Amino acid sequence: MKPQCYLAIDVGAESGRVMAGLWNGRNIRLEEIYRFANGPVALGETIRWDVLRLWSEIQHGLALAGKRFGKQIVSVGADTWGVDFVLLNMQDEILGQPYHYRDLRTRGMLERTFRKVPQSEIFAQSGLQFMELNTLYQLLAWQKHSPEILDAADTLLFMPDFLHWCLSGTKRAEFTIASTSQFVHPLHRGWSLPLLRELGLPVHFLPKIVPPGTVLGMIRPSLAKRTGLAGVKVVAPPSHDTASAVAGVPTAGTGRSWAWR
Q1: Residues 235/213, Cβ–Cβ less than 8 Å
Q2: Cβ neighbours around 63 below 10 Å, total
Q3: How far is CA 164 from CA 105, 156, 256, in A?
Q4: Is the pTM higher than 0.85?
Q5: How many contiguous H segments (helices) and E segments (strands) does the chain have?
C-alpha cells in the first residue's frame, strides 16, 4: 500500500512536539518533526499558560510536516496534560489568560468544597483522586474571584480540546481529558451536573463529550493554506497524555493480561 502519515501533537507541561506516524500496511514508524519548549508563565502573582505561543509553535511544526509528507498525511490529533482549560465567549474570544494547574489560587479549596458537599459524594460522582489542582477546584476558584468570567463563558475547552478547535473549529470534550476534571460521572460517563449545581457552578459552557477516535472534522481551510495540510481530518485521540500512553502499549492482551504503571 502507499505509505500513510498520521500526525500527533503531543504537548506536556515542559515541552511539546509534532510527531509523524508512518504506516506502510504492516508496521508503523515514528518520526519527530518539531519539538518546542513549554512551561508556566509568571504573571503578577499568578502562573499561566501562553496558549497562543503554543499554538504558534504547533502551526510551525504542522507546516514542516506538510512540506515533508504532503498528501501522505491522513489525519492529525492532539494530547496534553490534564485538568487545565481555556474559556471562550460567544464570539470565540479567549476569556482571561488560562491558569497553570500549579497556580496557588486553589490552595485550601478542597476543605471549602467539603463543607458544601461531602467528600464521599464528590467521589461517587467522579471516581477521581482528590487534588486541589483538579478542574473542579479551579472552577470554584474562578467562581470565588471572578464569577463574571464564568458567566460570560460560552465554552470550556480542555487544552487538547482547545487545540482541536484551533485545528478544526469543532468544540467537543474528548472523554479521557474530560475525566481529569473531577466532574465526569464514572458510570454514565457524562458530566456530573447535579454535583456542579450543588456547588453553585454554572454548567452552560460544558461541550458534548465524545469518545476517543471521534472525527471532529476537516482542518480549517485557512490553516490548511498556511501549513499545506488540505484535506486532512482532525481526529480526537485519547487526549489525556496518560490515556494515549496506555493506548500505545504494544500488547494484544489489552485489558486482560498486562499491567501498566
Answers
A1: yes
A2: 18
A3: 28, 13, 32
A4: yes
A5: 10, 12
Confidence of residue 112 (pLDDT cuts 50, 70, 90): very high
The DSSP-derived string for 28-42 is EEEEEEEEEE---EE
Q: What DSSP designation does 213 have?
A: T
For strands 46-48 and 73-80, give the pairing: unpaired
Q: How many CB atoms lie within 10 A of CB 30?
A: 11
Q: What are 39-96's pLDDT values in tens digits? A: 999 999 999 999 999 999 999 999 999 999 999 999 999 999 999 999 999 999 999 9
The Cα 174–Cα 212 span in angstroms is 6
103 is catalytic: no
Q: How confident is the model at residue 2 (pLDDT cuts 50, 70, 90)?
A: confident
Phi, psi at 152, each rounded to 5°: -80, -15
